[in-house]
Amino acid sequence: MNRRLLPTTVVGSYPKPNWLRRLIREYEKGEISDKVMRRAYDDAVKAVVKEQELAGVDILWDGEMRRDEMTSYFARRIEGFTIYGEVRVWGNNYYPKPAIVDELRYKDELAVSDYKFLRKITDREIKVPITGPYTLVDWSFNEYYRTREEAVYALAEVINQELRRLVDEGANYIQIDDPAVPTHPEEIEVAKNSIEIVTRGVNAYIGMHMCYGDYSKIYPEILEFDVDQIDLEFANRGFKDVEIFKEYEFTKDLGFGCVDVHTRRIESVEEIKDNIRKAFSIVEPKRVYVDPDCGLKLLPSEVAFEKLRNMCQAARELREDLEG
Amino acid sequence: MIMSRVIPTTVGSYPRPPWFREYLRKVEGLQKEGGGGIDEATYAKAVAEVIREQRDAGVRVFTDGQLLWHDLLCHLATKIDGFEMNGLVRYFDNNLYYRIPKVKAKLERKRNIIVDEFRVAYSIEREIKAVLSCFTLAALSEDKFYGNKTDLVMDIAHIMNQEAKELVKKGAKYIQIDEPSLLYAEKEDLSIMKDAIEVIRRGVDAKFFLVTYFRDAERIFPEVLDFNVDVIGLDFVEGYEKNLNLLREFGVDKEIQAGIVDGRTTKMEDKEQVRRRVEAINEIVNGETLYVSPNTGLEFLPYSKASEKLKILCRSVGDINE
After folding, report:
1. Which of A12-16, A78-82, A106-110, B94-98 shows the lowest mean pLDDT across its residues?
2. In this complex, is the C-beta atom of B24 within 8 Å of any C-beta atom belonging to chain A?
3. Which of A24, A74, B11, B305 is most buried by a 10 A CB count?
4. Which of A90, A181, A237, A260 would you mutate first to test chain B, the one with the most B CBs within 10 A?
5. Is the residue at B178 inside a domain?
6. What is the per-residue pLDDT for B31?
7. B203's torsion region: left (phi>0), alpha (psi -120 to 50) or beta?
8. What is the pLDDT of residue A274?
C-alpha cells in the first residue's frame, strides 16, 4: 500500500468520554431510548475522531465507543454464542465470557455500520480492528465443537464473511486483533490456518495485532501468517523484545508499539523518537507503522490525547529527517 | 470387594456471587491486592451463600470458596512478611493472571493468613477444608533472597505449620495443601516437598489433603505415595487414563480425591460417564473414603454454572453409596 513514511495509527480503542459512560449506565437501567443512545454513540465517535485528527493520527478508527469489550461484543452478534456471566481475568477484573453452544454462523454485521459512519465523518484513512477467531475461541467456553480447532475454523469463516462485506463497503485496511496467539505457541498452526480462512478473498491491507505472551516462542513462525503487517507492543516491555526480531529477517510491515498504554506518564517527543528508531534495527523505515502498544481506553482522555500528539509529532520529525 | 464411601467435595475457589463481586470491586478497586476495608458481615453473607450453593448441590465436605483470594499466591504472600508483589503473569494454561510474589527477605509469619476467613466459614459449616499451599507458592515466586529452593520451601513450610496449628485451634479438621506446581516439578523437588510436609504436619491434629490439578500426576509417582498425607488429590479430567494407570501400577494405601468433572468448562458432563469413571477409580483405591470433586477450583466458571457443575458431580455418584 502506498503510504507516506512512518504512518501513524492507533490500535483501536480510545477513552470513552465521561458523559458517554454515564449515559451507557442509564441506558442499561432502561432510562434512555435506543434512539437517544445511538445518537450519543454517534456524537462520541465524532468527538474522539476529532481528537485523533487534532493529535495528528494518519490512520484512525472510531475509538470503539460502541464496544464494551473485545470478546463478548462480537460474540453477542454471532449465532451460536451465549453468555452465562462474568469470569475473572485477575483480581477484581472480570469479563463476560462467551460460550459456544451451537454451530457458529454469521448473523449480524460486526463492524460494517461503524465503518460506514466513520467514513462519512473523516477524510483520513481508516483501519477496522476486529478480534480474531483464535482469540475469540480461546477466551470462550466451547460446549459445541469436538475440538478447539474446529471451533476456530468455523468462527474464521464467520469473520471472513464480515471482512468481505467491509471491503465491499470500501474498507481497505483491516486489523485482526489476536492477543491470545502468543499465549499458545503450541497452537500456532491453528492460528495460522485461521488467518488464512479469515483473509481468503479479502482484498485489503491486513494487519495483525498481538500483545501478551512471549514473542520469542512465536517468532519467526508468525512471518508465515497471511498478513501484510504484524503489530506488536514494545514500550510496555522496555523495548527488550526488539532483539527477538533481529534474529531473522522481518519480512512483513511492522506496527511498532512505541508508547506505553499501561502508564499515565506522557512520553516526550524526543523519547518517542528514540523509541521509533529502535524499530529501524528490525526493518527499514518504510516498513514501519507508528502506534501505541495497545488500545488507549484505560487512560484518562487528556493523557491519551497527549500521548498520541507527542507520538505523531515524533513521527513527523523523524519523517522529515529521513526524507531530508 | 469393599467399595469406599464416595463423598463429594470442592477443591477451593468458588465464583464470587455477582453482588459480592461488585462489592469487592467497589471497596478494593481494580488494581489493589489483598483485603482491607471489607465488612465482615457482608463477607460472611457471601460465604454462607456459596456454602449453601455447595450443600444444595449435594457436596458434603466444603470450602469457603476463597472469596477474598485474588489468586492462589498473592492471598498467602501478601500476609507473609518478606514477600513483595510484582507484575502479572499467566496462571498455568488458564486465561487467568496472578501477580508474581517476589521474595525480598526472610519469610516470616507475623499475622494470621487465612485463620480469620476460616473462622467465618466454620461458624456456618463445620465440614470445611482450610486451603493452603507451600511448594507452588515457592515455585511460582521470584526468589531474590534465599538462593536455593530447599530453604525457601522449608521456611514456607514452617509458616504453613504455624498457620495450620492456629486453624486447628479454631476447629479445623481438614487441611488441604494445593500444589499444582508439583505436577511440573523435578524429582529432587519431590524429596524437598516430602520433608516440607513433615514440617507442615508437625503437631497438627488434622486430616491432610495434598491436591494437584491441571495435568496428570506422572511426574510425582511413585514418590508422592510416601508423603505423609492422608488424601491425595488427582486431576482425572486432564489425566484420566494416566492417573488410573498410575494407581493400578503402584497401588495406593491413601485416600484419593478424584477431580472428576471439568471445573474449567461450562460444558456439562454426561452423568453416566462420570459414574462409570468414579466406579473405575473406586475399584482400584481401597481407602475408607473416596472424595470426588471438580478437577479444579470453580472460579473459572460463571456463578450460575458452578452449582450446575456440582450437581452433575453429586448426582452422578448419588447412587454409588447405596
Report:
1. B94-98
2. yes
3. B11
4. A90
5. yes
6. 64
7. left
8. 98
Q: How far apart are CA A238 and CA A241, in angstroms?
A: 8
> Domain range spanning residue B121?
5-317
Instruction: State whether residue B97 sits within 8 Å of chain A by CB.
Output: yes
Q: Which of A92, A97, A143 sits opposite B30 (nearest CB)?
A: A92
User: From the first residue on, what is the mean pLDDT of each consecutive set of 10 residues in chain B (322 residues)?
Assistant: 84 97 88 69 98 97 96 92 88 88 96 97 98 97 96 98 98 98 96 97 98 97 96 97 96 95 97 94 89 97 97 88 60
- Give the closest residue to B184 by CA, choosing from B143, B212, B223, B225: B212
CB contact under 8 A, A90 and B71: yes
Do B31 and A139 count as a contact with CB atoms less than 8 A apart? no
Is residue B322 assigned to a domain? Answer: no
The enclosing domain of B64 has a CATH number of 3.20.20.210
Q: Delimit the domains of chain A by residue range.
A: 56-323
CB contact under 8 A, A89 and B97: yes
Q: Does B88 contact A at CB distance below 8 Å?
A: yes
Give per-residue pLDDT as tens, A6-53. Answer: 999 999 999 999 999 999 999 999 999 999 999 999 999 999 999 999
Asked if residue B261 belongs to a domain, the reply is yes
pLDDT at A106: 98
CATH placement of domain A56-323 = 3.20.20.210
> What distance in Å separates the CA atoms of residue A95 and residue A86, rounded to the nearest whole number?
5
pLDDT reported for residue B322: 55
**Closest of A197, A137, A128 to residue A168, by C-alpha:** A128
Grid coordinates representing B37 are: 476495608
Contact (Cβ atoms closer than 8 angstroms) between residue B105 and residue B127: no
Number of independent structural domains in chain B: 1
Pick among B23, B266, B267, B300 to test the A interface (most A CBs inside 10 A): B266
**Strand B174-178 to A78-90 pairing:** unpaired
pTM value? 0.93
